[in-house]
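We read letters as residues; the fold follows as tokens. Both lines appear below.
***
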Amino acid sequence: MSKRPVASQEITEEAWIATLRKMYVTMLRIRRFEEKVAEVLRSGSEIICPVHLSIGQEAVAAGVCANLRHDDYAFSTHRSHAHYIAKGGDIKTLMAELHGRATGCSRGRGGSMHLASADIGFPGSSAIVAGTIPLATGAAMSFSLQEKDTVAVAFFGDGATNEGVFYESLNFASLKKLPVVFVCENNLYATHMPASSCLADTDIRKKAEMFNMPGARVDGNDATEVFQVSGKAIEDARRGRGPALIVCMTYRWLGHVGPNYDLDKGLRSKDELEHWMNRCPVRMAEKKLLSHGALSEAERDQIYQDIEQEVKEALAYARQSPFPNEDELLNNVFATSR
């Protein structure tokens, strides 16, 4: 039986294909969910909170989270839907949150940028650029002090590497050998600014060298590569070998915020967008599965139908859910005195 290396282990071909298939389903669920959100955004005023979509970047979330245990923590950014779903989040409560409903994962208080679901190891996301990097580092410190083999992962964009707290967190994590993995989703733009316009050296992977930790740069559109490299980093962190920085090169198809391609803004070219759309992470995974005989066209079509139904039900659930009661406005805002 042929085997493929993952982290420091060897797994059978069957197990590897099962993992790739799981990641494929996760990526497709993220894609169809966000495409439906984009459709709702374009059609009216149902969703009024700012929404940052990660269509085109699905392989990063799916590849990393496929290595995480239920009790591991994943911290996210303003572009958080993919990480939430890949960590096991329910798309019904996610859709409800985007609609500001009481049944949302943050009870309708957070919207798209402030998702939280502690029961799946997703303590929260933040609209503050680089805001959850120190939180993941602090969680890893807690795990270390409690002598747990739990791991924290911080997802962030290339723009976050301009923030001082990024450097402080990497330094502290390396100094204390904390079980945290820093995952940079480098989609080439910090909001609307090309990385080359704000970084003297655009090879973010090199920043790991400053803090004596492993650094890797991977194809962020290849779920296989993301899974393998992040698996090694997560396993090392779990075994007390300290943190790592992984830079995943990827690209968001839509604008920084909202449902449009924003080609009319002069920020990027149509050729650039089409180049990355031709490297669709979902299609890349699907092609691998089909070529290995691990997915038939009939099975693919059934997966599409099943996910389409899930998304349809999620939207109906959100629309039917109540808004938060005004009487609860100040609940969970202030700590109660004892």
